[in-house]
TrEMBL record:
It is a multi-pass membrane protein. Its EC number is 3.1.4.52. PROSITE patterns: EAL. This is cyclic-guanylate-specific phosphodiesterase. It catalyses: 3',3'-c-di-GMP + H2O = 5'-phosphoguanylyl(3'->5')guanosine + H(+). It is an enzyme of class 3 (hydrolase). The chain crosses the membrane at residues 12-32. SUPFAM superfamilies: EAL domain-like (SSF141868). It comes from Pseudomonas izuensis. Residues 257-510 form the EAL domain. It comes from the Bacteria.
Length: 510
């Protein structure tokens, strides 16, 4: 279960890191693609406008020729033939000219006398017809301009070659089509009939305001991406750079936010929290009566870390419970083999925090601890600091009753620094008071503190509680405390906290 939770957390962390890296890249990509589409749209707009301009320029010649010839319609072909040829020769883009009478071509600049019916309804706006070819050049499109007035008519044709050439030159990078009525022409020279095709990217359609034709421009599928990859490589590199930076920042922020708890969880899995033992001696004989188990963090980089630096974090994150459990298990493993050699019950003091007393799990932990030792060979003493009082609830009541039934002893640690009342001491079946080392340190120095110490000792005697004095460093302190019937002494005078295994080998030697 913890492993599953770990891998889940890990994958969430990786997902967040990836998201913080990818988000700016994706966002930047979307903005660049919008920018590319805008540029392509502008480009097709310009292309279409340019094509319209060119075709209008060409058609101006045809319109001019037809206008000049129209008054001649009705005269015999022999009379006007020269005029027809002159227009075709003189005017650029005009390939041929014709005269019409009553919807019938009767004279042509190419053939002279000629007879061909025309369907004026086929002409877009009555003026323009795009044809696939004509009898002279069946494979080259022709654009015919027609001018009519009553029965008279004049026509001039524009060679498709010029149209295709213009389409090709202007639409070098785009798809471009010239549309006249239902017919249209593309830059590859193909003539088509029917509705205009859809150009997938940046399609623009413009109609000429002067002649009945339109131009459509656009790009083939995938042009946006092609444009981006050819124009934006430096921006892409910049985006990826920002993505990497943002991903890194995301990663570091997550690491930082989960840092102390995460680091302690790792340390717990790696069994870096180890027990140190400090001897506790009898007040009178000064013989060893037991130990206090003190936690140390054997950090791979920082070395040995003091408990006051990490215990507050462990309490805050709730990790203190499994950490204490591990400490108890390690202590049992170290000390249980000696249990038959103890002459009298050996006191083993373990520090317990208030939030460890909020459920009954502690009972099971103590039961397992005691089960590791020979029956009656030890006293397990739970040290509860007076600095954080335990709130009396139905659960804590039950807890302390069950602990009492198991034979577990309770000590109030750092006594004198908090505000426990007599009721409080009775409620939890307290067995020992551990006099805080600050009072011990004042023996012979500060008379006020000594008075407090005297009252504490008097109170303990009245309540019939055994006393432990902490932080005993000098003989004077030891003598004073013994003279006042303090039952147990603990301090550097009798031994510093040392690694469990080292303590045991010293104890065995002794
Ligand atoms: P504490 O429970 O009051 O433990 C006694 C502290 O006094 C220990 O500090 C011990 O090394 C130190 N000490 C012992 N004799 C002397 C002396 O003669 N002179 C002086 N100056 N100091 C002495 P340590 O080991 O650094 O622990 C500090 C505190 O961290 C402990 O105070 C306890 O509140 C907490 N702690 C340690 N281990 C655990 C643990 O396993 N669980 C919990 N919840 N708290 C722990
Ligand atoms: Ca303690
Ligand atoms: Ca203490």
């Amino acid at each position: 279960m913890p492993l599953n939770a770990n891998t889940r957390k890990r994958s969430i962390r990786i997902a967040i890191t990836l998201a913080s890296g990818l988000l700016p890249v994706l966002l930047g990509g979307v903005i660049l693609s919008m920018q590319a589409e805008r540029t392509l749209q502008q480009s097709t707009q310009q292309t279409a406008e340019e094509a319209i301009r060119q075709f209008e320029l060409m058609l101006d010649n045809n319109a001019q020729a037809a206008r000049e010839l129209l008054p001649l319609a009705g005269q015999t072909c022999i009379d006007v033939n020269l005029a027809l040829r002159e227009q075709a020769t003189r005017r650029p883009f005009v390939r041929s000219t014709n005269l019409v009478w009553d919807d019938t071509i009767y004279c042509s600049s190419l053939f002279g006398d000629y007879q061909e019916k025309i369907a004026s309804g086929d002409y877009a706006g009555g003026r323009l017809l795009l044809m696939k070819g004509n009898p002279v050049t069946p494979n080259t499109a022709v654009l015919v301009y027609r001018l009519g007035e009553g029965l008279r008519g004049a026509m001039s044709t524009l060679d498709g070659y010029h149209l295709i050439n213009a389409l090709r030159m202007i639409g070098r990078h785009t798809l471009l089509a010239l549309q006249v009525g239902p017919h249209w022409l593309t830059s590859d020279g193909e003539f088509h009939e029917g509705p205009l095709p859809v150009f997938p990217v940046a399609q623009t359609k413009i109609d000429s305001s002067r002649f009945a034709f339109g131009v459509q421009a656009g790009f083939p599928e995938g042009e946006t991406w092609r444009y981006m990859s050819s124009q934006y490589p430096p921006l892409f590199s910049l985006l990826i750079f920002f993505g990497v930076i943002s991903g890194l920042i995301g990663h570091i922020l997550q690491k930082r936010s989960s840092s102390p708890t995460h680091e302690m969880k790792r340390a717990l899995d790696a069994a870096e929290f180890v027990p140190y033992f400090q001897a506790v001696v009898h007040g009178d004989s000064k013989k060893i009566s037991g130990i206090e188990v003190l936690m140390r963090w054997n950090h791979p980089k920082e070395g040995l870390v003091r408990p006051d630096l990490f215990i507050p974090f462990a309490e805050h994150s709730g990790l203190i419970v499994p950490m204490t459990r591990s400490l108890m298990q390690q202590t049992a493993t170290l000390l249980a083999p000696l249990s038959t050699s103890f002459e009298e019950p050996f006191h083993i003091g373990v520090n317990i925090t208030a939030n460890h007393c909020q459920d009954l799990d502690l009972v099971q932990d103590c039961r397992e601890f005691l089960a590791a030792f020979a029956p009656g060979s030890i006293y397990l003493v739970l040290e509860l600091t007076e600095r954080e009082l335990i709130e009396p609830t139905a659960i804590t009541h039950q807890l302390f009753e069950q602990l009492h039934d198991l034979g577990v002893k309770i000590a109030i640690d750092d006594f004198g620094t908090g505000h426990s009342s007599l009721g409080y001491l009775r409620q939890f079946n307290v067995d020992y008071l551990k006099i805080d080392q600050s009072f011990v340190a004042m023996i012979g120095i500060d008379t006020l503190s000594s008075h407090i110490l005297d009252s504490i000792m008097e109170l303990a005697a009245k309540l019939d509680l055994a006393m432990v004095a902490e932080g005993v460093e000098t003989l004077a302190q030891s003598d004073y405390l013994t003279a006042h019937n303090v039952n147990f002494l603990q301090g550097y005078l009798y031994g510093r906290p040392m690694p469990g295994a080292e303590f045991i080998s010293a104890l065995s030697d002794h």
